[in-house]
Specification:
heterodimer; A: about 450 residues; Aspartate Aminotransferase, domain 1; 2 domains; 4-stranded antiparallel beta sheet; B: about 525 residues; 7-stranded mixed beta sheet; 13 strands; globular
Chain lengths: ~450, ~525
């Protein structure tokens, strides 16, 4: 077996030193009724690389890669071009095959990029401080609400009707089982909901997504003021991080916690994971944050270096009093994010955002001309909602048969509501060509 | 000599002993490079990408204004490659050496798995594509799920948790949901003193009082003490097996019976499943829920701290409470149950789980097969016992063997040497080894938990053993200053963690902002 270095001679010599007759003897603490010494029946034996490759390539070939066809899918996962240098660098074994930097003297590489990652996230969101990552945007969202509950010592969160339904569901699940209230606003299709009226003296936070899942963009400054007037926090969720190359950041609008999905930078679609959750807040709340934090310090020679810090918030120190149970997070995805953003830089990132916005404007104008299609949004970043004459899911399925991935039917996210059945979320990024958009508009005109 | 903040010399270096430079002008030492932050080397005019000029179209942002500057640095591609290459060279890694971090299972990460995860048919598919266009992806998840069920003997598996701690939460919510479904509100969860910190953190977050079970003298749970703590208010026990002392809980079947007789459920922390894959099926032990860290047992890379994946296998009693999404095999292919229905407890994470990790884990499992998996766990246990047997006369084993996949020592052998467990670990760094897990489990004084994994050859273990023997003998011979001053040869020496926590600096800021803050 190519991954196992021990030879039979090695094993015999080692057993001799141990003083055991066989490896089975080493398992003598296992109750006899549960002990096996032969392989589980009916399972296949080991395979060479070539054979494993054949099998997995066969499975891969049964999927339709988004990049092989015109694709306009978003709703929390976006297809962007990733520079080749990103994947090259994250596959360096010193990054790929190391672990959480428990020994900082031999983990300065990981620690320094985490410090750079935290700084980048703070800059993009307009916040003071960010942690070293969460599993993804949805789990970061639920953690943000639980943090707001700790900060305000309240237990009622209000979830915007523009929040990604999976994020809302994850937060509701935490609410139900960890014991707080999560109040859902109805789906905000038009981007006009009045959340300020839902804040009262018992509200821990308002959770609002910008751009919303329907693509609407709003200035949240007044909402932030309304929250603060009642002692509540404003949690802002961003599922498309590229939008912060163009839009006023949540920090400038008065957000107290910003959580985001970082997949768009450096990370492929991967059928939904692994992704990287971003989590940023104000300095004054840092000790209530979940997750790992990297901080600057000096070594015994006075040289600058980095360590994991403020770990008295964390489970491995604080156990049942920890701010979160999170341990392993999304280190390598955070590295991909940091490398991609380093390559883009200030100018490149802003340009990328404008290219995305321009692509979406181009697409919206094309689709708006298709009879039976109307664009709902007045403002948007790179994703918007269209209303179709007909069932959106059925139309998406028909277009998929023609090898066009037309977008995400709202009914896929919010089932059982006939009034939403003809709504389709459509995204465009820098990867979409004019020809893709023409093909989509023409095909849509055929099926609507 | 004077150092500036990036570690580079500000004056000409002096010559040290024997003509060796005490330090260098550049601050670099041979291949060990000093590297500033990206923010200290960027120019806004530079970029590492060439994007087309956006059309000067109008903005369609509704009432929102476009933002002004962000403050990101600009670097060209060669600068970025050099920066991150230099950072990588400051890291220890499995690829470079033995990484015996107990409980973390730092085994070899096959590159085939990386290549497979990057096939466009897996990496470039959107989670909400029509299911007809992702049948291969759903089949892959289903295949991995079936392997996990065959290897554990359990009834069902929830694939969506993002890592082990997330899986713990999944299993514990399923337990709570099952209890509530039978109208049984219980308030207490039993957790051994030696448990991972995630266990009490998980139970407490769900509103349970955490009740610690003491350990017995042999490093296992004190079964009598456990029995005494059981009662009608106990919801569950959370037990790691093999446990965090690297030992198999020999009373586990009896413990399961006691727990079930008390109407409670049995959560097993599966962090150490790698020791028993193919040899013991958790279902045969009476377990109701167990997470499987794909990044440990099935070698999806640790990536400097994730991403992981933590599928949870469930017993019949818990199967119906599993969260969304679930892959469903039907007569016309695979589909996804994306919305919590019936008794499902909800949703833990957007989309359908850590697909990229599933591909890697399945590639690992197919490569090993049932025979290779059994051999891998056997070799892991053999290697750990070899380390234990080879060091027991110079270090102090916390408990007599045999152990499972990791060997636990305490600090009795360092008594009155002036050397602590931490000092000993830091001296290993100078010898080119990542230390073992230290000061965990908490129940053992000055704990050193060594997990060599099956990936190490006998030659590699022999050199590691010889090195630890040398260090142990040196400590006993009174060379404490060698240890207290360690490490000397690493990219940084001991770091001031207290100072870092007292005045946290958690991000870079431009000089002018720092100056303002100082005034």
């Amino acid at each position: 077996m190519r991954y196992l270095p021990l030879t039979q001679d090695d094993r015999a010599a080692m057993l001799a030193r141990i003083g055991a007759g066989s490896v089975d003897d080493l398992f003598r603490d296992v109750p006899e009724s549960a002990r096996r010494s032969s392989v589980i029946e009916g399972l296949p034996s080991h395979l060479g690389e070539l054979e494993v490759e054949r099998r997995l390539k066969t499975l891969a070939a049964r999927n339709l890669p988004a990049g092989s066809v015109p694709s306009f899918m978003g709703a929390g996962a976006y297809r962007h071009h990733i520079p080749a240098a990103v994947d090259h660098l994250i596959q360096r074994g010193e990054f790929l095959t190391s672990y959480t930097p428990y020994q900082p003297e031999v983990s300065q590489g990981t620690l320094q990029y985490l410090f750079e990652f935290q700084t980048q996230v703070a800059l993009l969101t307009g916040m003071d401080v960010a942690n070293a990552s969460m599993y993804d945007g949805s789990t970061a969202c639920a953690e943000a609400v639980m943090m707001a509950n700790r900060v305000t010592k309240r237990s009622r969160a209000v979830l915007s009707g523009g929040l990604h339904p999976h994020y809302a569901e994850v937060t509701r699940t935490q609410a139900r089982w960890t014991g707080f209230d999560a109040v859902d606003a109805p789906p905000d299709i038009t981007g006009t909901e009045d959340l300020a009226s839902l804040v009262d003296d018992t509200t821990s936070c308002i959770v609002v997504q910008n751009p919303s899942v329907f693509g609407h963009i709003r200035d949240l400054s007044a909402l932030a003021e309304a929250c603060h007037a009642k002692g509540a926090l404003l949690v802002v969720v961003v599922t498309e991080i590229v939008s912060l190359g163009l839009l006023t950041p949540p920090g400038e609008m008065g957000a107290d916690i910003v959580v985001a999905e970082g997949q768009s930078l450096g990370n492929a679609l991967n059928f939904g994971g692994p992704y990287v959750g971003l989590f940023a807040t104000r300095d004054k709340f840092v000790r209530q944050m979940p997750g790992r934090l990297c901080g600057e310090t000096i070594d015994a020679d006075g040289k600058r270096g980095w360590v994991l810090t403020l770990s008295t918030r964390e489970q491995h120190i604080r156990r049942e009093k920890a701010t979160s149970n999170i341990c392993t997070n999304s280190g390598l995805c955070a590295l991909a994010f940091t490398i991609h953003l380093s390559l883009l830089g200030e100018a490149g990132f802003q340009k990328l955002a404008r290219l995305n916005h321009a692509a979406a404007i181009g697409l919206a104008d094309r689709l708006a001309k298709v009879p039976g299609v109307s664009v709902i949004n007045r403002g948007f970043f790179n994703e918007f909602t269209i209303r179709l004459r007909g069932d959106a899911a059925a139309i998406v399925d028909r277009l998929a048969e023609q090898r066009i991935l037309a977008g995400v039917p709202v009914s896929r996210l919010i089932p059982g509501k006939p009034e939403l059945a003809n709504l389709l979320l459509v995204a465009a990024t820098e990867t979409n060509t004019e020809a893709d958009m023409d093909a989509f508009a023409a095909a849509l005109a055929e099926v609507v | 000599m004077a150092m500036n903040s990036t570690g580079r010399g500000t004056t000409r270096p002096e010559t040290g002993e024997g003509g060796m430079p005490a330090d260098t002008f550049s601050g670099n030492r041979g291949l060990a490079m000093e590297e500033p932050l990206i923010f200290e080397q960027g120019e806004p005019a530079r970029a590492g990408v060439d994007l087309p000029e956006p059309p000067i179209a109008e903005l369609r942002l509704g009432d929102v204004k476009p933002r002004s500057g962000i403050g990101l640095p600009g670097l060209s591609e060669p600068q970025v490659i050099r920066h991150f290459t230099r950072l990588s060279q400051k890291n220890y890694a499995i690829d470079a050496g033995l990484y015996p971090l107990g409980s973390c299972t730092m085994k070899h990460n096959p590159r085939l798995n990386e290549a497979m995860a990057r096939l466009p048919g897996f990496a470039d598919i959107h989670p909400l594509q029509p299911v007809a266009t992702v049948q291969g992806a759903l089949e892959l998840i289903d295949s991995l799920a079936r392997w996990l069920l065959d290897l554990t003997g359990m009834a069902a598996v929830a694939m969506s948790p993002g890592a082990g701690a997330h899986g713990e939460q999944c299993g514990m919510i399923a337990i709570r949901a099952a209890l509530e479904a039978r109208g049984d509100k219980r308030s207490r969860v039993l957790v051994p003193e030696s448990a991972h910190g995630t266990n009490p953190a998980t139970a407490a977050a769900l509103g349970y009082a955490v009740d610690a079970i003491p350990g017995a003298a042999d490093g296992r749970v004190d079964t009598a003490a456990l029995a005494a703590k059981l009662g009608p208010d106990v919801a569950a026990i959370m037990l790691t097996n093999p446990n965090t002392c690297g030992l198999f809980e020999h009373d586990i079947i009896e413990i399961a019976r006691l727990v079930h007789d008390a109407g409670a459920l049995f959560y097993c922390d599966g962090a150490n499943f790698n020791a028993i894959v193919g040899r013991v099926r958790p279902a045969d032990l009476g377990i109701d829920a167990m997470h499987i860290n794909l990044h440990k047992t099935f070698s999806t890379p640790h990536g400097g701290g994730g991403p992981g994946a933590g599928p949870v296998v469930l017993s019949h009693a818990l199967a119906s409470f599993a969260p969304a999404s679930a892959v469903v095999r039907g007569p016309n292919g695979f589909s996804l149950a994306e919305h919590p229905e019936g008794s499902s407890f909800g949703r833990l994470k957007a989309f359908h789980g850590q697909m990229g990790m599933f591909v890697r884990a399945l590639a690992y499992i197919l490569s090993h097969g049932a025979d290779g998996l059994l051999q891998a766990s056997s070799d892991a246990v053999l290697n750990a016992n070899y380390v234990l047997a080879s060091l027991q006369d110079v270090m102090s084993p916390a408990f007599p063997g045999p152990c499972m996949h990791e060997a636990l020592f305490d600090d009795r052998f360092l008594k009155e040497t002036g050397v602590s467990t931490l000092d000993f670990a830091k001296a290993m760094l100078d010898e080119g080894y990542h230390p073992m897990t230290v000061y965990f489990p908490l129940a053992v004084h000055g704990a050193m938990l060594i997990e060599p994994t099956e990936s190490e050859s006998k030659e590699s273990l022999d050199l590691f053993i010889a090195t630890l023997r040398y260090l142990a003998e040196r400590a006993k011979a009174g060379a404490s200053e060698h240890f207290v001053a360690a490490p000397r040869l690493t990219p940084r020496r001991r770091l001031d963690e207290t100072g870092a926590a007292r005045k946290p600096v958690l991000r870079w800021r431009p000089e002018e902002q720092l100056d303002q803050a100082a005034e």
